[in-house]
Amino acid sequence: QVQLVESGGGSVQAGGSLRLSCAASGYTDSSAHMLAWFRQAPGKEREGVAAIYTGDGSTYYVDSVKGRFTISADNAKNTVYLQMNSLKPEDTAMYYCAASAFVTPYQWRAVYGGSWYLGYGMDYWGKGTLVTISS
Question: Which end of the chain is more exposed for a tag (fewer CB within 10 A), N or C?
Answer without folding.
Answer: N
